[in-house]
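Let us work through a complete example step by step.
Step 1: write down the sequence.
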Amino acid sequence: MNDLRAIGDACWKSYDSGEWNRAIGGSTAIPVAEDIAYIPTRGVVGNVTAVRTSEGLVLFDTGSTGRAQQIYDALRAWDASPIHTVIFTHGHVDHVMGAELIEEEARKRGEPQIRFIGQRNMPARFARYITTAGFNGNINARQFGVPGFRWPTQFRTPDVIYEDKLEITVGGIAFELNHARGETDDHTWTWIPHRKVIVSGDFVIWAAPNSGNPQKVQRYTRDWAEAYRAMAVRQAAALVPGHGPAIFGADRVATLLADGAALLDAIHDQVLAMMNEGKTLDEIVNAVKLPTDLLSRPYFQPTYDDPEFLIRNIWRLYGGWWDGDPAHLKPAPAKDLAAELASLAGGAAKLAERARELAAEGELRLAGHLAEFAVRAEPSNADAHRARIEVNRQRSDNERTLMAKGVFNAAVRDSQAVVDPNAPPPPRRNVGIG
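Step 2: predict the structure and record it as C-alpha coordinates.
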Protein backbone atom coordinates (compact mmCIF):
# COMPACT_ATOMS: atom_id res chain seq x y z
CA MET A 1 0.00 0.00 0.00
CA ASN A 2 2.81 2.38 0.84
CA ASP A 3 4.31 1.54 -2.55
CA LEU A 4 1.05 2.55 -4.20
CA ARG A 5 1.08 5.86 -2.38
CA ALA A 6 4.65 6.42 -3.56
CA ILE A 7 3.63 5.55 -7.14
CA GLY A 8 0.73 7.99 -6.84
CA ASP A 9 3.09 10.69 -5.59
CA ALA A 10 5.36 10.11 -8.60
CA CYS A 11 2.40 10.76 -10.91
CA TRP A 12 2.69 14.44 -10.00
CA LYS A 13 5.69 14.68 -12.32
CA SER A 14 4.61 12.19 -14.98
CA TYR A 15 1.15 10.63 -15.10
CA ASP A 16 0.14 7.74 -17.32
CA SER A 17 -3.29 6.24 -16.65
CA GLY A 18 -2.19 2.87 -18.04
CA GLU A 19 0.78 2.71 -15.67
CA TRP A 20 -1.43 3.72 -12.73
CA ASN A 21 -3.99 1.04 -13.62
CA ARG A 22 -1.28 -1.59 -13.85
CA ALA A 23 0.18 -0.49 -10.52
CA ILE A 24 -3.08 -0.74 -8.57
CA GLY A 25 -3.88 -4.08 -10.19
CA GLY A 26 -7.43 -4.25 -8.90
CA SER A 27 -9.15 -2.60 -5.97
CA THR A 28 -6.92 -1.83 -2.98
CA ALA A 29 -7.37 0.58 -0.07
CA ILE A 30 -4.62 3.22 -0.07
CA PRO A 31 -4.10 5.25 3.14
CA VAL A 32 -4.74 8.99 3.10
CA ALA A 33 -4.62 9.48 6.87
CA GLU A 34 -4.90 7.24 9.93
CA ASP A 35 -8.68 7.02 9.53
CA ILE A 36 -9.12 7.71 5.79
CA ALA A 37 -8.39 5.53 2.78
CA TYR A 38 -9.39 5.54 -0.85
CA ILE A 39 -10.00 2.62 -3.19
CA PRO A 40 -9.08 3.17 -6.83
CA THR A 41 -10.05 0.67 -9.50
CA ARG A 42 -8.69 -0.15 -12.92
CA GLY A 43 -10.27 1.41 -15.97
CA VAL A 44 -12.48 4.45 -15.79
CA VAL A 45 -14.53 3.58 -12.70
CA GLY A 46 -14.58 6.20 -9.95
CA ASN A 47 -12.62 6.07 -6.72
CA VAL A 48 -14.36 5.23 -3.45
CA THR A 49 -13.16 7.01 -0.29
CA ALA A 50 -13.79 5.70 3.23
CA VAL A 51 -13.56 7.47 6.58
CA ARG A 52 -13.48 5.49 9.82
CA THR A 53 -15.58 6.87 12.71
CA SER A 54 -16.78 5.55 16.06
CA GLU A 55 -20.28 5.12 14.61
CA GLY A 56 -19.19 3.31 11.48
CA LEU A 57 -17.76 4.10 8.07
CA VAL A 58 -18.60 7.10 5.91
CA LEU A 59 -18.16 6.32 2.21
CA PHE A 60 -17.89 8.65 -0.73
CA ASP A 61 -19.46 6.84 -3.71
CA THR A 62 -19.90 3.11 -4.25
CA GLY A 63 -18.39 2.39 -7.66
CA SER A 64 -19.92 0.72 -10.71
CA THR A 65 -21.99 -2.43 -10.99
CA GLY A 66 -19.12 -4.42 -12.46
CA ARG A 67 -16.56 -3.28 -9.87
CA ALA A 68 -18.74 -3.10 -6.76
CA GLN A 69 -17.67 -6.46 -5.34
CA GLN A 70 -13.97 -5.72 -5.79
CA ILE A 71 -14.42 -2.37 -4.09
CA TYR A 72 -16.40 -3.88 -1.23
CA ASP A 73 -13.78 -6.60 -0.67
CA ALA A 74 -10.99 -4.00 -0.62
CA LEU A 75 -12.98 -1.90 1.83
CA ARG A 76 -13.49 -4.88 4.15
CA ALA A 77 -9.79 -5.71 4.03
CA TRP A 78 -9.19 -2.20 5.40
CA ASP A 79 -12.06 -2.03 7.93
CA ALA A 80 -14.93 -4.38 8.82
CA SER A 81 -17.08 -1.75 10.56
CA PRO A 82 -20.69 -1.18 9.53
CA ILE A 83 -21.26 1.45 6.85
CA HIS A 84 -23.09 4.36 8.44
CA THR A 85 -23.39 6.92 5.62
CA VAL A 86 -22.74 7.12 1.88
CA ILE A 87 -22.18 10.54 0.31
CA PHE A 88 -22.65 10.53 -3.46
CA THR A 89 -20.25 12.98 -5.10
CA HIS A 90 -22.55 12.96 -8.17
CA GLY A 91 -24.91 10.65 -10.03
CA HIS A 92 -22.75 9.14 -12.78
CA VAL A 93 -23.09 5.37 -13.00
CA ASP A 94 -19.45 4.61 -12.23
CA HIS A 95 -19.96 6.26 -8.82
CA VAL A 96 -23.39 5.14 -7.60
CA MET A 97 -24.14 1.61 -8.81
CA GLY A 98 -22.51 -0.26 -5.92
CA ALA A 99 -25.26 0.89 -3.56
CA GLU A 100 -27.36 -2.25 -3.99
CA LEU A 101 -24.46 -4.51 -3.06
CA ILE A 102 -23.48 -2.67 0.12
CA GLU A 103 -27.09 -2.48 1.30
CA GLU A 104 -27.54 -6.20 0.70
CA GLU A 105 -24.34 -6.92 2.64
CA ALA A 106 -25.54 -4.72 5.51
CA ARG A 107 -28.81 -6.69 5.66
CA LYS A 108 -26.93 -10.00 5.72
CA ARG A 109 -24.78 -8.72 8.58
CA GLY A 110 -27.80 -7.49 10.53
CA GLU A 111 -26.56 -3.90 10.48
CA PRO A 112 -28.66 -0.71 10.56
CA GLN A 113 -29.90 0.78 7.31
CA ILE A 114 -27.26 2.87 5.53
CA ARG A 115 -27.98 6.56 5.08
CA PHE A 116 -27.42 7.97 1.57
CA ILE A 117 -26.84 11.68 0.95
CA GLY A 118 -26.89 13.55 -2.36
CA GLN A 119 -27.43 16.98 -3.83
CA ARG A 120 -30.96 18.14 -4.71
CA ASN A 121 -30.53 17.64 -8.46
CA MET A 122 -29.64 13.97 -8.14
CA PRO A 123 -33.16 12.47 -8.10
CA ALA A 124 -34.01 14.39 -11.28
CA ARG A 125 -30.83 12.99 -12.87
CA PHE A 126 -31.85 9.44 -12.01
CA ALA A 127 -35.36 10.07 -13.38
CA ARG A 128 -33.83 11.36 -16.62
CA TYR A 129 -31.56 8.33 -16.82
CA ILE A 130 -34.59 6.05 -16.65
CA THR A 131 -36.59 7.89 -19.32
CA THR A 132 -33.57 8.10 -21.66
CA ALA A 133 -32.14 4.63 -21.00
CA GLY A 134 -32.00 3.69 -24.66
CA PHE A 135 -30.30 6.93 -25.66
CA ASN A 136 -27.78 6.69 -22.82
CA GLY A 137 -27.06 3.09 -23.73
CA ASN A 138 -26.31 4.14 -27.30
CA ILE A 139 -24.08 7.09 -26.50
CA ASN A 140 -22.09 5.22 -23.87
CA ALA A 141 -21.68 2.27 -26.23
CA ARG A 142 -20.20 4.73 -28.72
CA GLN A 143 -18.10 6.70 -26.23
CA PHE A 144 -16.52 3.67 -24.56
CA GLY A 145 -16.59 1.21 -27.47
CA VAL A 146 -19.03 -1.21 -25.84
CA PRO A 147 -21.59 -2.23 -28.50
CA GLY A 148 -24.88 -3.37 -27.01
CA PHE A 149 -24.28 -1.69 -23.66
CA ARG A 150 -27.46 -1.66 -21.56
CA TRP A 151 -28.05 1.41 -19.43
CA PRO A 152 -29.30 0.76 -15.87
CA THR A 153 -32.84 1.73 -14.94
CA GLN A 154 -32.73 1.31 -11.16
CA PHE A 155 -30.91 3.78 -8.93
CA ARG A 156 -30.59 4.33 -5.17
CA THR A 157 -32.22 7.71 -4.48
CA PRO A 158 -30.59 9.58 -1.56
CA ASP A 159 -32.39 9.61 1.80
CA VAL A 160 -31.05 13.07 2.60
CA ILE A 161 -31.12 15.82 -0.03
CA TYR A 162 -29.31 19.13 0.40
CA GLU A 163 -29.20 22.33 -1.65
CA ASP A 164 -25.94 24.30 -1.40
CA LYS A 165 -24.19 23.27 1.82
CA LEU A 166 -24.65 20.57 4.43
CA GLU A 167 -22.68 19.91 7.60
CA ILE A 168 -22.97 16.50 9.24
CA THR A 169 -21.16 14.79 12.10
CA VAL A 170 -20.68 11.03 12.30
CA GLY A 171 -18.88 9.55 15.28
CA GLY A 172 -17.51 12.93 16.26
CA ILE A 173 -16.04 13.62 12.81
CA ALA A 174 -17.34 16.60 10.85
CA PHE A 175 -18.02 16.60 7.13
CA GLU A 176 -18.79 19.78 5.20
CA LEU A 177 -20.59 19.11 1.90
CA ASN A 178 -20.53 21.76 -0.81
CA HIS A 179 -22.51 21.82 -4.03
CA ALA A 180 -21.04 23.20 -7.25
CA ARG A 181 -21.83 22.64 -10.90
CA GLY A 182 -19.11 21.25 -13.14
CA GLU A 183 -19.21 17.94 -14.94
CA THR A 184 -22.76 17.59 -13.57
CA ASP A 185 -25.36 19.84 -11.96
CA ASP A 186 -25.54 17.61 -8.84
CA HIS A 187 -21.87 17.58 -7.87
CA THR A 188 -20.60 17.59 -4.28
CA TRP A 189 -17.13 18.23 -2.95
CA THR A 190 -16.50 17.64 0.75
CA TRP A 191 -14.14 19.15 3.29
CA ILE A 192 -13.02 16.90 6.18
CA PRO A 193 -11.52 19.44 8.58
CA HIS A 194 -9.95 17.17 11.21
CA ARG A 195 -7.54 15.82 8.57
CA LYS A 196 -7.61 18.83 6.22
CA VAL A 197 -8.69 16.55 3.36
CA ILE A 198 -10.89 17.37 0.36
CA VAL A 199 -12.84 14.65 -1.44
CA SER A 200 -13.37 16.32 -4.79
CA GLY A 201 -15.36 13.83 -6.82
CA ASP A 202 -14.92 14.35 -10.56
CA PHE A 203 -13.85 17.96 -10.25
CA VAL A 204 -10.41 16.28 -10.42
CA ILE A 205 -9.92 13.26 -12.70
CA TRP A 206 -6.22 13.43 -13.67
CA ALA A 207 -7.14 14.73 -17.11
CA ALA A 208 -8.35 18.00 -18.58
CA PRO A 209 -11.66 18.92 -16.93
CA ASN A 210 -14.49 16.95 -18.53
CA SER A 211 -16.60 20.01 -19.30
CA GLY A 212 -17.11 19.45 -23.00
CA ASN A 213 -18.37 15.91 -23.69
CA PRO A 214 -20.20 16.24 -27.04
CA GLN A 215 -22.65 13.43 -26.32
CA LYS A 216 -23.85 14.36 -22.84
CA VAL A 217 -25.96 17.07 -21.24
CA GLN A 218 -24.76 20.57 -20.39
CA ARG A 219 -21.55 21.03 -18.41
CA TYR A 220 -20.52 24.18 -16.55
CA THR A 221 -17.02 25.49 -17.18
CA ARG A 222 -17.20 28.76 -15.24
CA ASP A 223 -18.83 27.10 -12.23
CA TRP A 224 -16.11 24.46 -12.27
CA ALA A 225 -13.45 27.16 -12.03
CA GLU A 226 -15.32 28.70 -9.10
CA ALA A 227 -15.39 25.31 -7.38
CA TYR A 228 -11.61 25.09 -7.68
CA ARG A 229 -11.30 28.51 -6.05
CA ALA A 230 -13.67 27.54 -3.25
CA MET A 231 -11.65 24.40 -2.54
CA ALA A 232 -8.42 26.37 -2.55
CA VAL A 233 -9.64 28.51 0.35
CA ARG A 234 -9.52 25.41 2.59
CA GLN A 235 -5.75 25.02 2.16
CA ALA A 236 -6.10 21.23 2.19
CA ALA A 237 -3.22 18.94 3.05
CA ALA A 238 -4.56 16.23 0.71
CA LEU A 239 -7.14 15.88 -2.04
CA VAL A 240 -8.79 12.63 -3.09
CA PRO A 241 -10.03 12.87 -6.70
CA GLY A 242 -12.86 11.08 -8.46
CA HIS A 243 -10.31 9.19 -10.59
CA GLY A 244 -6.58 8.64 -10.30
CA PRO A 245 -4.17 8.96 -7.37
CA ALA A 246 -4.68 11.19 -4.35
CA ILE A 247 -2.68 14.42 -4.18
CA PHE A 248 -0.67 14.92 -0.99
CA GLY A 249 0.87 18.15 0.28
CA ALA A 250 -0.70 21.58 0.65
CA ASP A 251 1.53 23.10 -2.04
CA ARG A 252 0.57 20.49 -4.61
CA VAL A 253 -3.13 20.75 -3.86
CA ALA A 254 -2.99 24.54 -4.09
CA THR A 255 -1.08 24.37 -7.38
CA LEU A 256 -3.55 21.95 -8.97
CA LEU A 257 -6.56 24.02 -7.95
CA ALA A 258 -5.01 27.28 -9.14
CA ASP A 259 -3.98 25.71 -12.45
CA GLY A 260 -7.45 24.26 -12.94
CA ALA A 261 -9.19 27.56 -12.37
CA ALA A 262 -6.77 29.35 -14.70
CA LEU A 263 -7.22 26.72 -17.43
CA LEU A 264 -11.02 26.92 -17.37
CA ASP A 265 -11.06 30.72 -17.09
CA ALA A 266 -8.77 31.04 -20.11
CA ILE A 267 -11.13 29.08 -22.36
CA HIS A 268 -14.39 30.39 -20.90
CA ASP A 269 -13.45 34.07 -21.00
CA GLN A 270 -12.21 33.97 -24.59
CA VAL A 271 -15.40 32.26 -25.79
CA LEU A 272 -17.67 34.68 -23.96
CA ALA A 273 -15.76 37.72 -25.21
CA MET A 274 -16.01 36.56 -28.83
CA MET A 275 -19.69 35.75 -28.44
CA ASN A 276 -20.21 39.33 -27.25
CA GLU A 277 -18.38 40.52 -30.36
CA GLY A 278 -20.90 38.67 -32.56
CA LYS A 279 -18.60 35.93 -33.82
CA THR A 280 -20.04 32.60 -34.97
CA LEU A 281 -19.25 29.31 -33.29
CA ASP A 282 -17.04 28.27 -36.18
CA GLU A 283 -15.05 31.50 -35.89
CA ILE A 284 -14.68 31.07 -32.14
CA VAL A 285 -13.58 27.42 -32.31
CA ASN A 286 -10.83 28.40 -34.72
CA ALA A 287 -9.76 31.54 -32.82
CA VAL A 288 -9.56 30.46 -29.16
CA LYS A 289 -5.99 30.11 -27.95
CA LEU A 290 -5.85 27.09 -25.68
CA PRO A 291 -3.62 27.32 -22.56
CA THR A 292 -1.17 24.70 -23.77
CA ASP A 293 1.16 25.22 -20.81
CA LEU A 294 -1.60 24.24 -18.37
CA LEU A 295 -2.79 21.39 -20.59
CA SER A 296 0.72 19.95 -20.45
CA ARG A 297 0.53 19.47 -16.67
CA PRO A 298 0.45 15.75 -15.74
CA TYR A 299 -2.89 16.23 -13.97
CA PHE A 300 -4.60 18.19 -16.81
CA GLN A 301 -3.53 16.49 -20.01
CA PRO A 302 -6.31 16.23 -22.65
CA THR A 303 -6.61 12.45 -22.73
CA TYR A 304 -10.32 12.06 -21.93
CA ASP A 305 -12.21 15.19 -23.01
CA ASP A 306 -11.01 17.57 -25.72
CA PRO A 307 -10.58 21.29 -24.87
CA GLU A 308 -12.16 22.10 -28.25
CA PHE A 309 -15.34 20.47 -26.96
CA LEU A 310 -15.33 22.83 -23.96
CA ILE A 311 -15.58 25.74 -26.39
CA ARG A 312 -18.71 24.26 -27.93
CA ASN A 313 -20.29 23.56 -24.55
CA ILE A 314 -19.70 27.13 -23.38
CA TRP A 315 -21.42 28.32 -26.56
CA ARG A 316 -24.31 25.93 -25.89
CA LEU A 317 -24.72 27.26 -22.34
CA TYR A 318 -24.92 30.91 -23.36
CA GLY A 319 -26.01 30.77 -26.99
CA GLY A 320 -28.19 27.73 -27.58
CA TRP A 321 -27.87 25.16 -30.36
CA TRP A 322 -27.68 27.40 -33.45
CA ASP A 323 -24.06 28.04 -34.44
CA GLY A 324 -24.55 31.29 -36.38
CA ASP A 325 -24.51 29.77 -39.89
CA PRO A 326 -27.83 30.56 -41.67
CA ALA A 327 -27.65 27.29 -43.63
CA HIS A 328 -27.65 25.38 -40.35
CA LEU A 329 -30.79 27.01 -38.96
CA LYS A 330 -33.15 24.90 -41.12
CA PRO A 331 -30.75 22.61 -42.97
CA ALA A 332 -31.51 20.16 -45.73
CA PRO A 333 -31.55 16.49 -44.70
CA ALA A 334 -27.95 15.26 -44.54
CA LYS A 335 -28.58 12.55 -47.14
CA ASP A 336 -29.97 15.11 -49.61
CA LEU A 337 -26.99 17.41 -49.18
CA ALA A 338 -24.65 14.43 -49.61
CA ALA A 339 -26.45 13.30 -52.75
CA GLU A 340 -26.20 16.79 -54.26
CA LEU A 341 -22.49 17.06 -53.51
CA ALA A 342 -21.90 13.57 -54.89
CA SER A 343 -23.71 14.57 -58.07
CA LEU A 344 -21.56 17.68 -58.45
CA ALA A 345 -18.38 15.68 -57.79
CA GLY A 346 -19.25 12.87 -60.18
CA GLY A 347 -20.54 10.30 -57.70
CA ALA A 348 -19.82 8.89 -54.25
CA ALA A 349 -16.70 7.18 -55.60
CA LYS A 350 -15.20 10.59 -56.40
CA LEU A 351 -15.92 11.82 -52.88
CA ALA A 352 -14.37 8.68 -51.40
CA GLU A 353 -11.31 9.04 -53.63
CA ARG A 354 -10.82 12.66 -52.60
CA ALA A 355 -11.33 11.76 -48.93
CA ARG A 356 -8.44 9.29 -49.20
CA GLU A 357 -6.25 11.89 -50.90
CA LEU A 358 -6.95 14.48 -48.21
CA ALA A 359 -6.29 11.95 -45.45
CA ALA A 360 -2.95 11.10 -47.04
CA GLU A 361 -2.12 14.82 -47.01
CA GLY A 362 -3.01 15.05 -43.32
CA GLU A 363 -6.21 17.04 -43.93
CA LEU A 364 -8.23 14.74 -41.72
CA ARG A 365 -11.07 17.12 -40.91
CA LEU A 366 -11.87 17.72 -44.58
CA ALA A 367 -11.39 14.03 -45.31
CA GLY A 368 -13.88 13.20 -42.60
CA HIS A 369 -16.54 15.39 -44.21
CA LEU A 370 -16.08 13.88 -47.67
CA ALA A 371 -16.04 10.30 -46.40
CA GLU A 372 -19.26 10.94 -44.53
CA PHE A 373 -20.88 12.56 -47.59
CA ALA A 374 -19.87 9.54 -49.69
CA VAL A 375 -21.62 6.97 -47.50
CA ARG A 376 -24.68 9.16 -46.99
CA ALA A 377 -25.00 9.67 -50.73
CA GLU A 378 -24.73 5.94 -51.43
CA PRO A 379 -25.29 3.97 -48.18
CA SER A 380 -24.71 0.60 -49.86
CA ASN A 381 -21.48 1.59 -51.63
CA ALA A 382 -18.84 -0.69 -50.12
CA ASP A 383 -15.91 1.36 -51.42
CA ALA A 384 -17.33 4.51 -49.85
CA HIS A 385 -17.55 2.65 -46.54
CA ARG A 386 -13.98 1.41 -46.94
CA ALA A 387 -12.85 5.01 -47.40
CA ARG A 388 -14.83 5.97 -44.31
CA ILE A 389 -13.12 3.19 -42.36
CA GLU A 390 -9.65 4.30 -43.50
CA VAL A 391 -10.29 7.96 -42.74
CA ASN A 392 -11.83 7.39 -39.31
CA ARG A 393 -9.14 4.93 -38.29
CA GLN A 394 -6.57 7.55 -39.14
CA ARG A 395 -8.56 10.18 -37.28
CA SER A 396 -8.75 7.95 -34.21
CA ASP A 397 -5.04 7.20 -34.35
CA ASN A 398 -4.31 10.94 -34.42
CA GLU A 399 -6.43 11.77 -31.38
CA ARG A 400 -5.41 11.74 -27.73
CA THR A 401 -8.85 11.96 -26.19
CA LEU A 402 -11.12 9.04 -25.47
CA MET A 403 -14.12 11.19 -26.45
CA ALA A 404 -12.95 11.72 -30.03
CA LYS A 405 -11.57 8.21 -30.42
CA GLY A 406 -14.91 6.76 -29.33
CA VAL A 407 -16.85 8.60 -32.04
CA PHE A 408 -14.36 7.87 -34.83
CA ASN A 409 -14.09 4.20 -33.84
CA ALA A 410 -17.88 3.91 -33.81
CA ALA A 411 -17.93 5.17 -37.41
CA VAL A 412 -15.37 2.48 -38.27
CA ARG A 413 -17.55 -0.20 -36.68
CA ASP A 414 -20.67 1.02 -38.48
CA SER A 415 -18.97 0.88 -41.87
CA GLN A 416 -17.34 -2.45 -41.10
CA ALA A 417 -20.82 -3.85 -40.52
CA VAL A 418 -21.66 -2.91 -44.12
CA VAL A 419 -18.38 -4.10 -45.67
CA ASP A 420 -17.99 -7.26 -43.54
CA PRO A 421 -21.03 -8.11 -41.40
CA ASN A 422 -19.22 -11.19 -40.02
CA ALA A 423 -16.30 -9.27 -38.53
CA PRO A 424 -15.78 -10.07 -34.82
CA PRO A 425 -16.85 -7.39 -32.31
CA PRO A 426 -14.15 -5.37 -30.51
CA PRO A 427 -13.24 -6.22 -26.89
CA ARG A 428 -15.51 -4.80 -24.20
CA ARG A 429 -14.45 -1.89 -21.99
CA ASN A 430 -15.70 -0.58 -18.68
CA VAL A 431 -18.14 2.31 -18.86
CA GLY A 432 -16.93 5.04 -16.57
CA ILE A 433 -16.69 8.78 -16.20
CA GLY A 434 -19.42 10.64 -17.99
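Step 3: interpret the result. Residues 2-264 form a domain with the Metallo-beta-lactamase; Chain A fold (CATH 3.60.15.30).
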